[in-house]
Amino acid sequence: MYKGSLFERLMPSEKNSVYKGDEESLYTSIALNLSRIFSTNAGSSEIALDYGRPDLDNINLNLNESINEIEKNSKSTIDNYEPRLHKVSVSVNKEHLRKNEMSIFIDGYVKIDKNMKKMSFKANLFKNGGVKIQKYGI
Question: What total number of domains does the chain contain?
Answer without folding.
Answer: 1
